[in-house]
Specification:
The protein is of the alpha+beta class. It has 24 helices and 17 strands.
Length: 787
């Protein structure tokens, strides 16, 4: 989270002024003590620069996008400058050496491209093609003229200097750096920015200007050998740096100080001198050309004439572009006036129409502007006396805004107008807006309001409009009847004070109301309210947020009395419960009856003689079949769903009972169950259970004779993207005898399997390749109504 600055911008400005004045005053006090002045200048500058670097870094931290990069580059530039000052101070104070030229110059010179790069990254608005071209020409004129001045007064004297070559090159490089900085300053001046950027950028531009001027004075003094380290000239650099820091601080601060309007109010900014600046610079270049003999020894007149000629040519091209831009601007203005949806006019007090645009002609349904101007303006007033009132008010007040009146078109139709007028001498000028459609819309809105009011009142639901703080703004008659209060008594009261909530329900309602105000989407909810007779009514409530200017400012509460519906639902649930208990009891009794049948068969088996093996086997098989059906009914009455059973549990239980019934050693015959999570209805489960019981019984009886080991596998899968199921019962035993044919079955068990397969709309396949494998494809049967 970005924190606010520790000090205000006003305090920052005050501290900057104190620092600048203190530096200048101390420099003046120490002017007769060169050593102390030098020490003060060398030590004070890096400290001030550190403060400026912190301010620039803070601006980068608080900014985003290109502006963050811009402030970061400027901070790096000042940091490079500060490193130069530190090296300068070490060389001058510690080693008593002349710091120019030295490695400090490398960091000083790095300041200029970094700073210019920072200016380049400042986000600016785009110009039109002609504007861009005009700016390029104006910047070219200024740059050529300033370059000429730099050449004559700074670069040429350095080249002609009889001193060492390397110091001269370094001095010239500083001048080139100032030229780069000046170019960046021009780019800043000739750009358009967001409104909030102008304050910081004005301070930044002033700091750049002071820095360039200070650098030029330094170059001239250095050329003359009159520069004094720690002197007043250093105060110029300090002021420039402080302005950099203030511009960054203003940009980073949430405080808004609109410097731009004050800057525009200055006499120079208000005058049109800025539009003539390129001409002034061209004139300066021409004066330099005329007087160059008196300023410079052995000047290159031919080169200067070429440069001045180029400047004058650029001035002429700029003038042509300016005239073209002005012509296009006038054309655009005319098109804007003619294509405006608002009628623009100028009339004389006597009623003559002096000027009218195309829109006004269209509003009054005149054939043309000229045809419109052939009439008196009073001819278009529905009530001519209205114009006299307007003229009188204009004479008293001078201006008239948004005055509504009725006028008539050339075809005699009434036109509702919104008039703005200004009286200057005997001329009335202004705009007329056709608001006829708006009037129709207002009337339609009024009619709709009445319709919606009728619907609101006729709504049988209790409907209340509540403000964000819980105060009732409106309520319909249904809500009034429920509460026992009139609509007038409800409006203005807090909904929690109506006495219709119990304590628990009031907290519940407040929570829902609070969540709705936060913009949460709430489903209708139910709770009980107390009506005017003190009885509890079940209510279903819908909260509808009402937005204004993108913010939720009220909630529409729609309460539906569901007491009768709730009572009917409770009765239905009670009846359904009784039916569930009855069905559960039926399944339980069927299962018990089947267990009785199983027990009877078991008793019958016990009374058979040992020679009656066939009869015992038949009875045992019948017993297993009955048990498989009884298990299904047991699963159904133990389940919450009386129509489906979980088949995996059923198969495991069935197989376990069959192993026990046939007294099979589980160490010899291994049962493998691979059943998906399948639920089958009773119509399918009963025959499917009997099929599994028959096939497993066959495997247990015949597949593994004489204690042979083996494996029986039961699999039930659902076919993907298909309603079919696949039941597989396989064993790796001795296999079926070769004379058994599924199409011509003689055994009861397999015949039962075949018939049951047909009952569940299935198909059976037999695989004898490895033991015996039955594969049955079947569908889950749909419930058929019993007769």
């Amino acid at each position: 989270m970005k924190k606010d600055p520790l000090i205000s911008f006003k305090l920052a400005v005050f501290l900057a002024v104190i620092i600048a004045l203190s530096f200048a005053v101390i420099s003046l006090i120490l002017q007769n003590d060169p050593n102390s002045r030098m020490v003060f200048g060398d030590l004070a500058s890096p400290i001030i620069e550190l403060v400026v670097i912190i301010s620039l870094s803070y601006a980068a931290y608080r900014s985003q996008g290109r502006m963050r990069v811009a402030w970061l580059m400027i901070a790096l530039a000042v940091m490079s400058y500060a490193l130069g000052d530190v090296i300068w101070a070490v060389l001058e104070l510690v080693y008593n050496q002349n710091p120019f030229p030295s490695v400090a110059d490398l960091f000083y010179l790095l300041f200029y491209p970094l700073f210019a790069l920072g200016i380049y990254f400042i986000s600016r608005d785009r110009f039109s093609y002609l504007e861009e071209l005009k700016i390029i020409l104006e910047m070219g004129i200024v740059i050529l003229t300033v370059g000429l001045i730099f050449w004559l007064f700074l670069i040429e004297p350095n080249l002609s200097n009889e001193e060492a070559f390397f110091p001269s090159i370094i001095s010239i490089t500083y001048i080139v750096g100032d030229f780069v900085l000046f170019f960046a300053l021009l780019r800043l001046l000739y750009s358009r920015f967001k409104e909030e950027y102008y304050g910081p950028l004005i301070l930044l531009g002033l700091g750049m200007t002071i820095t360039i001027i200070s650098d030029c004075i330094y170059s001239y003094q250095n050329l003359q050998g009159t520069y004094i380290s720690g002197g007043l000239l250093d105060a110029g650099w300090i002021i420039g740096l402080l302005l950099f820091g203030l511009s960054a601080f203003l940009h980073a601060s949430d405080e808004k100080y609109d410097i731009y309007p004050y800057f525009k109010s200055l006499p120079l900014a208000r005058s049109k001198v800025t539009s003539y600046l390129p001409l002034i610079w061209a004139l300066i270049a021409f004066i330099l050309l005329i007087n160059v003999d008196q300023m410079v020894r052995e000047p290159d007149i031919n080169l200067m004439e070429i440069i001045v000629g180029i400047i004058i040519f650029m001035v002429l091209i700029r003038q042509l572009i300016t005239e073209k831009a002005l012509s296009e601007s006038e054309k655009n203005y005319r098109e804007l006036v003619d294509n405006s949806l608002v009628g623009i006019y100028k009339t004389h007090l006597n009623g003559d129409i002096i000027f009218a645009n195309e829109s006004l002609a269209r509003i009054f349904k005149s054939e043309s502007v000229e045809e419109l101007k052939s009439h008196k303006i009073v001819d278009f007033y529905k009530n001519p006396s209205e114009r006299k009132k307007i003229i009188q008010r204009l004479k008293n007040e001078g201006k008239l805004y948004q005055y509504e009146l009725e006028m008539v078109s050339a075809t005699g139709e009434t036109v509702n107008m919104l008039l703005s007028a200004n009286l200057t001498g005997n001329t009335i000028s202004g705009m007329l807006m056709d608001i006829t459609q708006r009037k129709y819309t207002e009337k339609a809105l009024q009619d709709n309001e009445e319709k919606y009011r009728t619907l609101f009142e006729a709504n049988p639901n209790h409907t209340i409009l509540v403000s964000s703080d819980g105060v009732i703004l409106d309520a319909n008659s249904s809500a009034a009847r429920f509460s026992g209060l009139s609509t007038g008594e409800l409006i203005g009261r807090n909904f929690s004070d109506l006495g219709i909530f119990s304590e628990d329900n009031l907290n519940f309602a407040r929570d829902k109301f609070s969540r709705a105000l936060k913009g949460e989407t709430l489903k209708p909810f139910q709770y009980r309210l107390i009506n005017k007779n003190g009885e509890y009514n079940w209510i279903e409530t819908q909260l509808v947020p009402i937005k204004k200017d993108g913010m939720i400012n009220s909630i529409l509460i729609i309460d539906t009395d569901i007491t009768d519906r709730r009572n009917a639902t409770d009765k239905l649930k009670s009846s359904l419960n009784e039916k569930k208990i009855l069905i559960k009891e039926i399944h339980h009794r069927v299962k018990n009856n089947m267990q009785i049948i199983t027990s009877l068969l078991n008793l019958q088996i016990q009374h058979l003689d040992e020679e009656e093996i066939v009869a015992a086997t038949v009875l045992k098989e019948s017993q297993n079949r009955v048990r498989s059906m009884a298990m299904i009914h047991e699963k159904l009455y133990l389940s919450k769903d009386f129509t489906h059973i979980r088949f995996e549990d059923y198969i495991k239980r069935l197989l376990s009972d069959l192993l026990y019934s046939y007294e099979i050693n589980p160490d010899l015959v291994k049962l493998v169950v691979d059943v998906e999570d399948v639920d089958l209805n009773m119509e399918t489960a009963v025959p499917c259970g009997l099929i599994i019981s028959e096939l497993i019984s066959n495997s247990l009886k015949y597949a593994f004779p004489q204690g042979r080991k083996g494996e029986i596998k039961v699999s039930l899968k659902h076919v993907p993207e298909d309603p079919k199921f696949v039941l597989t019962v396989a064993d790796n035993g001795v296999g079926l005898p070769p004379n058994i044919d599924l199409k011509n079955i003689t055994t009861l068990g397999l015949e039962l399997v075949y018939n049951l397969t047909r009952q569940i709309d299935g198909e059976i396949e037999l695989d004898r390749s490895q033991g015996t494998k039955f594969r049955i494809n079947f569908n889950e049967l749909k419930y058929k109504k019993r007769i």
